[in-house]
Amino acid sequence: MHRVAIVGGSGFAGGELLRLLLGHPDVEVVQATSRSLAGRPLHQAHPNLRGRTDLRFSPPDDLLAADVRFVALGHGETAADLDRLADGAGALVDLSADFRLRDPGRYEATYGAPHPCPERLGEFVYGLPELHRDALAGATRVSGVGCNATAVNLALLPLARHGLIERAVVEVKVGSSEAGGRPSDASHHPVRAGAVRAYAPTGHRHQAEVAQELGDFPLSMSVTAIEMVRGAAATAHVFPTRSLDEKELWGLFREAFRDEPFVRIVKERRGAYRYPEPKILAGTNLADVGFARDEASDRVVVLSAIDNLGKGAAGSAVQSMNLMLGLDETRGLDFFGLCPI
Hints:
Layout: E1 2-7, H1 12-22, E2 27-32, E3 66-71, H2 77-80, H3 82-86, E4 89-94, H4 104-111, E5 125-126, H5 129-136, E6 141-143, H6 147-160, E7 165-174, H7 176-179, E8 197-200, H8 207-214, E9 219-225, E10 232-240, H9 246-257, E11 263-265, E12 287-294, E13 299-306, H10 310-324
Parallel strand pairs: 1-2, 1-3, 3-4, 4-6, 5-6, 7-9, 11-12
Antiparallel strand pairs: 7-10, 8-9, 10-13, 12-13
């Protein structure tokens, strides 16, 4: 059994990590930290874990040795304390945005300040297995992924990989677990009816991850919060470099995802869920991707859906951990969602 620990275990991402790792057949959760909840049982922050474990939150200054330490702290906190957080850990997985971008210039342009330790950026592998599976195998430093970036990266990957995107316009609909604060805030409840609102109408920071991973083609990206708790659904309007017919599109998407255990192509002629729907992916590490072609304009519309806390955060982190430890990457991630929901 591999010993794992979570630093910053009281937030949404920390709670999802705990849910997944407590059920993982090959790991033992030895610690979860929280400054405000130190000494209290985990279920005080995550009531779904009541009766699942006797573990209590530890103070973040008293870190136990672990084979893998997950860090789920706020932006900037990992970079400011990297050596201490890595000390005593065989491997580190950071779910924050601190080490997702490899270029210090891109980081500064995205976050408005220089990176506190730019010389360390190259130590981290971007933790999306569909893009970096080989590099993740045996890695000891892995960054988390942006949830919106994950939805967009997976949507555009089949076309971007072959240089077929002239430009793209993407709208991502997200739930309140992304758009709102921590579990102690009212914002962890569903956004109220009629509360569709612009969360980042332009310039969302996850756009930098898409540019890094897929290339610097012109991309306009908006993020809007809707009445949903979990989930991110991307609609990408792609203007291709040349006309693509239906048969070629099927070939591109099948080539990209045929060997991916967590990516499904969803494009049906009939039924209630003919295209990706985030609701039925809640709690999973799945990503559903579909597409449609506008014959009048040659525009390709690609749709993708994920659970922002699953494939967009903790799920990809656990999948990356499996690869880092030489385990089957699907271990502990076999929940396939609920329907109806």
